[in-house]
Amino acid sequence: MSDSLLHPVLEQVTAAIEQRSASRRSAYLERLQQAYQRDPRQHLGCSNLAHTLAAQPEAARLIVRQGGSAHIAIVSSYNDLLSAHAPLRDYPEQLKQALARHGASAQFAAGVPAMCDGITQGEPGMQLSLFSRDLIAQATAIGLTHGVFDGGLYLGVCDKIVPGLLIGALHFGHLPALFVPAGPMSSGLPNKAKAEVRQRFVRGDASREELLAAELAAYHGEGTCTFYGTANTNQLLMEFMGLHVPGSAFVSPHGELRPAITAEAARLVARNSRHGERPLPLGVQIDARVLVNAVVGLLASGGSTNHTLHLPAIAQAAGYELSWDDIAALSRVVPLLARVYPNGAADVNQFQAAGGPAWLIRQLLEGGLLHGEVATVAGDSLADYAREAWLDQGRLSWREVPAETVAPDILQPLATPFAAEGGLVLLQGNLGRAMLKTSAIPLSAWQVRAPARVFDSEAAVQRAYAAGEFSGDLVLVLRFQGPRGNGMPELHKLMPLLANLQQQGQRVALVTDGRLSGASGQVPAALHLTPEAACGGLLARVRDGDWLSLDAATGTLHLEVSEAELAQRVPASASETQAAGYGLELFANQRRLVGPADRGASWFDAGE
After folding, report:
1. Cis peptide upstream of residue 531 (ω within 30 degrees of 0)
2. C-alpha distance from residue 515 to each of 18, 241, 304, 527, 539 (Å)
3. Which intervals hold domain Dihydroxy-acid/6-phosphogluconate dehydratase N-terminal (predicted)?
4. How many Å apart are CA 604 and CA 594, to the nearest integer?
């Protein structure tokens, strides 16, 4: 499809991003050009090169010393604590062997940290989760700063890991980059059944043994969790941004197709290097059109709210300013085409079987809702990602997905979407700005007006619920959970109890400067509220009993207290002592330096 058929709002948003970012993007591209002119390894002294090659096998040494062939960095987040990353253990050797078949070489340049939000939910360690994204970017840069590589292969899957790898890679954007996923675990206990057991446990109707059995049945093997949270949204967005081997996002870690895709990743990165037939620096590839495509993919799929933080931070790394207003403008014209848990019953394996990202991309391209004529790691058109990968007599090939939806409960065409607008709404009002995920919320819950119940910690909310304090309609206000307050942890321990209240007939909503991510469900939640309470935001002046109104249809969030009354109130301070230990003190500077949520909650460029 020609980009001349683009929806006018896509054109307007893309042009606005380019215009406001012109100076910054120009400076970024100039840095890239200077870096590209410095031929890797040619500037090294003999001792430097000897250190580079000391542990290499003779065949790899010979390739590097002869020159004229690509030498690729492998950066991996492998550990066997994370089920999603456990399959990556053997990838480096597979990639090296595949590169050697194409006359290229590789070295494992860096291992980056990868923490599991599922393990740290409700624990002090969760306060480091968001900060780990920028640390991963720095760790990526440390591996690449040796200056000996012609490209990068990035192995990562979960929440902060892929955005961190991409931010780090963009700071070496003169090199081509390709992201290598591992795929989801096989389907286990359905996500809805798991959530029901969690709600019963919170009510006291299920034992800990029953809850643990359900959790183990849901999370039972290698691969990503099967609900459509941040990890799987990462993988879908890598397809929409053209950074994967086409069709690789949700291929199982096991079976013959996955190693064929991994080998293809090696071939493509060598081809896209300065020594290949199609040089493609990452920083040139990722332009405003690609960023807009990523937002469209996020909206059409009902993806994770975390990406309203990650995409602005990724854009910054590429020399662009992507705003929440851009996301909101696109959300008004991009329909919701997918229902994957938590905004539907299907898991990602069922989504993939129904057509997956390829089906979405084809629909959106045909409707003028994606920039099609963009460079990708595979070619010069996003249309390459509108087909699915398969093995044709043992060879990796691609084929068309069905023209019509084969699972109308999972995927719908543009003509009959699940919702006319995307899955994210920007809320604005006297409290500030917040993001709300609507894709899983029934229309009957889009408007909530109720008195506030104000808390400063997730644990305090749980204690109040256990004591039976939540009666009648209410807006739960949880503050001092922003980036400066305590690192902006996810607050999923709140979801079962709020869902219980909602099912009892109470009208409830959550307003917080913290996060929930892709598992945001049926309860309306105003997230990432900025300015946050710890930075003088009005949230610090809210009191129990104040009336709050939240309206997802009009995009408003309002505290019904007069300006005169608010001016007389002394802002609250966090009522509970900050958690100690768990290495939190090592990140004190990050809490002081981190920028606001609507700029990506990054400690890079926070002062700009």
Report:
1. yes
2. 29, 24, 10, 6, 15
3. 71-384
4. 7
pLDDT per residue over 229-250, tens digit each?
A: 899 999 999 999 999 999 999 9
Q: Residues 369, 449: contact at Cβ < 8 Å? A: no
As a dihedral over the C-alpha atoms of residue 443, residue 449, residue 450, residue 456, rounded to 10 degrees, the angle is 80
CB 70 within 8 A of CB 150: yes
Residue 608: what pLDDT? 45
Burial 223-247 (b: 16+ CB within 10 A, else e): bbbbbbbbbbbbbbbbbbbbbbbbb
C-alpha closest to that of 64 among 99, 110, 93: 99
CA-nearest of 474, 528, 517 to 228 is 517
| Fold (topology level) of 424-580 | Glucose Oxidase; domain 1 (3.50.30)
- Output DSSP code: residue 7: -
Report cis status (omega within 30 of 0) of the bond before 342.
Answer: yes
Q: Could you please report the per-residue DSSP string of 239-276? A: HHTT-SSTT-TT--SSSSHHHHHHHHHHHHHHHTSTTS
Closest of 166, 210, 6, 11 to residue 75, by C-alpha:
166
459-479 pLDDT, tens per residue? 999 999 999 999 999 999 999
Task: Give the Cα separation of 311 and 600 in Å (integer).
Answer: 7
Instruction: Give 200-227 pLDDT, tens digit per residue.
Output: 877 888 887 887 787 778 777 898 888 8
Residue 33, token pair as written in the block: 């050009």
Q: Which residues contact 148 (CB under 8 A, 6 or more apart)?
A: 40, 41, 44, 52, 71, 107
Note whether 275 and 69 are within 8 A (CB): yes
How confident is the model over 294-308, as pLDDT tens digits?
999 999 999 999 999
E strands in 273-358: none
Cα radius of gyration rounded to whole Å, the chain: 24
Residue identified by tokens 């909503």 is 509
* Alpha-helix runs per DSSP H in 37-90: 46-53, 58-66
Q: pLDDT > 90: what percent of the chain? A: 74
| Banded model confidence at residue 607, pLDDT cuts 50, 70, 90 | very low
Do 431 and 560 touch, CB atoms closer than 8 A? Answer: no
pLDDT at 4: 60
Are β-strands 447-455 and 387-392 bridged in parallel, bridged antiparallel, or unpaired?
unpaired
> Looking at the chain, which residues constitute the CATH 3.50.30.80 domain(s)?
424-580
Indicate whether 176 pLDDT > 80: yes
Pairing outcome for strands 432-437 and 395-400: unpaired
What SS3 class is residue 126? helix
CA distance 539 to 531: 8
Query: Cβ distance 597 to 528 under 8 Å?
Result: yes
- Coil, strand or helix at 182: coil
CA angle 370, 374, 379 (to 5 degrees): 120
Determine phi and psi for 522, rounding to 5 degrees. -80, -10
